């Protein structure tokens, strides 16, 4: 397609007149120029205009060159787009891998934290159970000591009671003996003085 447009472009350029040459010749003839003079002026003007147009269009880009440049730009943009997409995919995969790595580290830390908490709780439970056992042992020892003390107190009270009973009995014996002796003396005194 570009070959056809190039041929038509170059073909149309060769046949292209930038002004109406026939009308120029007619106008020059109306101005009292001869046919030959009019055609000479027209060919000179045609040549000057054609050279000027060529000089003007030289820096300009042809349609084919423009299409080529647009195609190159499109290809470059497509490559740039694919490179950007590839970089984005790589960045995304790197970010995803980093995120997964961080997530696994967080999971490991959570697991370690759970294990530490479980160990701490087990240690505290063990300490509490040991302390409960010590308290129970101390309480049972105190209970045994209290019972022993109660038993000693009761036996001491029983001993005191028996001693008091023995003392009462002795006092009673002395009193009976003293009263009997006093009664006998009194009777003896009464017998003596009667």
Describe the structure.
It contains four helices and no strands. The protein has 194 residues and is mainly alpha-helical. It is rod-shaped. The N terminus is likely disordered.
Question: Secondary structure elements and their pairing?
Answer:
Layout: H1 2-15, H2 21-30, H3 35-57, H4 63-192
Helix pairs in contact: 2-3
Range of helix content:
over 70%
The assigned structural class equals mainly alpha
Total count of strands: 0
Biggest beta sheet attributes: none
Radius of gyration: 70 Å
What is the chain-wise order of helices and strands? HHHH
Instruction: Report low-confidence residues grouped into runs of 5 or more.
Output: 1-14
Mean pLDDT: 84
**Tally of separate helices:** 4
Q: What best-fitting shape do the alpha-carbon axes yield?
A: rod-shaped
The separation of the N and C termini measures 188 Å
Could you tell me the strand content as a percent range? under 5%
């Amino acid at each position: 397609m570009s070959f056809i447009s190039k041929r038509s472009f170059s073909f149309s350029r060769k046949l292209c007149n930038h002004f109406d040459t026939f009308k120029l010749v007619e106008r020059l003839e109306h101005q009292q120029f001869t046919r030959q003079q009019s055609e000479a002026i027209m060919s000179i003007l045609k040549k000057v205009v054609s050279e000027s147009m060529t000089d003007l269009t030289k820096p300009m880009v042809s349609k084919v060159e423009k299409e080529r440049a647009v195609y190159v730009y499109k290809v470059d943009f497509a490559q740039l787009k694919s490179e950007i997409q590839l970089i984005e995919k790589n960045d995304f995969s790197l970010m995803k891998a980093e995120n997964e790595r961080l997530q696994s580290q967080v999971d490991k830390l959570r697991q370690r934290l759970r294990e530490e908490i479980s160990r701490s709780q087990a240690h505290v439970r063990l300490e509490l159970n040991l302390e409960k056992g010590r308290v129970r042992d101390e309480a049972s020892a105190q209970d045994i000591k209290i019972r022993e003390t109660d038993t000693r107190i009761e036996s001491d009270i029983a001993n005191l009671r028996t001693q008091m009973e023995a003392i009462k009995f002795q006092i009673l014996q002395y009193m009976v003996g003293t009263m009997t002796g006093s009664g006998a003396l009194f009777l003896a005194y009464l017998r003596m003085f009667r």
